[in-house]
Amino acid sequence: MSDQSKRKKLSRLVPTVRDVAKRAGVSPATVSRALGDKAVVSPELRQRVQDAANALGYRPNAFARGLREGRSRIVALLVGDIEQSHFSSLTKHVQKELSAVGTDLLLHDLEHREDRLMHILRQAPALQLNGIVLASSDTISSAAATEIAAARNAGIPIVAAGQDLTWAGVPSVTYNERAAARHSVGQLLALGGAPCAYVGRVQGSAVGTERHRGYCDAHEAAGAPRDAALTWDVAYRYSAGRDAVNRALREGIAFRSIQAGSDELAMGALAALTDHGLRVPRDVRLVGFGNVEMSAHLRPALTTLSSHAEEMARCIHQALDSQWQGQAPQELVMIERGLVQRQSS
Amino acid sequence: MSDQSKRKKLSRLVPTVRDVAKRAGVSPATVSRALGDKAVVSPELRQRVQDAANALGYRPNAFARGLREGRSRIVALLVGDIEQSHFSSLTKHVQKELSAVGTDLLLHDLEHREDRLMHILRQAPALQLNGIVLASSDTISSAAATEIAAARNAGIPIVAAGQDLTWAGVPSVTYNERAAARHSVGQLLALGGAPCAYVGRVQGSAVGTERHRGYCDAHEAAGAPRDAALTWDVAYRYSAGRDAVNRALREGIAFRSIQAGSDELAMGALAALTDHGLRVPRDVRLVGFGNVEMSAHLRPALTTLSSHAEEMARCIHQALDSQWQGQAPQELVMIERGLVQRQSS
User: Fold this and answer.
1) Complex ipTM, two decimals?
2) A107, B109: Cβ pair inside 8 Å?
3) pLDDT tens sequence across B120-170
4) Which domains does chain A have, with CATH numbers?
5) Which of A68, A118, B44, B215 sits at 20 to 30 Å (Cα–Cα) from A175?
6) Cβ-contact A313, A96 below 8 angstroms
7) What are the protein's GO molecular function terms (chains A, B) (predicted)?
């Protein structure tokens, strides 16, 4: 028997939230609400849904039972790469925010792989998750957008964190990456940092593309020429920053400052500069992105762009909560980053 | 109605794996196996369990259904603090190892809090997890050990990763922390690094206690006096390492080397030493613990003790797999750390 026919057979045997919704003549989201949060549906509607569930022998699983009993909710957090400090910090704060309202967090490391994203989205209805937070910096394909829409249609609240997915109908909480990079690179250029290099993922990264746009904006605003050889499109870790700088120096590419797409890349770049006897900021000014904890403990301490994981977690929770209440969440929340001035620029 | 009586009522209404086990006269683990992996129970036994499940109206939830259909398994990984690089790296490798055999990973950040550990252990049977990997460095109380035993009795395979929990009946995969610290500190003392300080969590950390024992062993072996004022018991992050060094220098405590309990603490210590105009390794030799990715990109590059997340993940998988096969796993697997010699010592 093929996997698909197995699944089909299974779905005939085990009534799902969709079956109950069809029988009760309501949306799957309404079924979840009727069996869950007692404040937001009328007693008549709840009874209708309950009758349909009983007639079909529908049983919510342990997660959903917990929800109905007001004991626990489960939200899945999907992150691009748990080894990147940005994602582990976001994880910590989202867990804190949600656990304060009795909600548990299931974390899923996507490893920047869309097949992993598709897999968890397809599983989501069966797991009867109470929400999905999609914290991926990677560009989302239209196939993935379709999968996201399917999960939403199954009544699962979804929030995008980090990139703007409103084009796919997903309420989003992002940073204003473009403005942040424009501000920071503008300052580097003003301080005599031209030519200024950009090191970080651009192609395939929705977030990186925004940051790189800000880098271009700043050159345009300053009337500074921009050399394509100074965009070092690499991913994602320390060694990529180190290797990019080593390569540029080997090739004799001249630069007086570097805007990095992450603090990790900046740290790798700093190591390569130091190894070549170049001093930061005297010879090369260097700015990171994201203000991860490590960056304050580098010497020279790293100038970088702030993150606000606590605020982002709060906005994520709000966007989920609106959906739990059956209300439309704010479509796009954009958080501004500030320049954290330290020793390296 | 109190929460407890609600739970009791719920457990009467919804038959659990334990109810099925009781009726079929087998263990809960056997129920899981009989409804799951088709290779390891006799057809007669499977039929008996299936009959009991049918009689009680027992339905495995989505996770368990997936398992039975051979589609997916879910293992929970509980980590002490996802922001510590050691844990995010372990997470990545455990997910890789398990996804290769069609198993998904649910990650749970304990924030070094035992109440969070208790909570997830209590939920585990209802979630019908296919396994729990307990990756916590914190000392486990007897109350938590009791909760672990309950989850095991409910048929959930458990593996400890990082600390030795064989005293609680849990198969464990650990590093030989004591030998690693003994070797490293022995070398520091031999290189003229006395007096040598230890910075890191000791009290309340099972792993830290082992490392500190190795630090004491090395002093004893070298016949070097050991001063309690040189054990800086702090947790867990960069700033703790920085603050400990700043405090010691302020108080005029003399030291010629530092063994840190983590690379993050070592990086914080390096920042404080640099700020005081002390040169590493000329004035103070410095060794980290764990060889997280960042440590190679510090300047001076950090000497540290190796980690083997890939091997640990493989051993964790083996310990789970033995239990899935109904076999006794190896009680204790101990992985040796090596000294990664770089510039700082």
Assistant:
1) 0.79
2) yes
3) 898 887 777 899 999 999 999 999 999 999 999 888 999 999 999 999 999
4) 1-71 (1.10.260.40), 177-305 (3.40.50.2300)
5) A118
6) yes
7) DNA-binding transcription factor activity; transcription cis-regulatory region binding
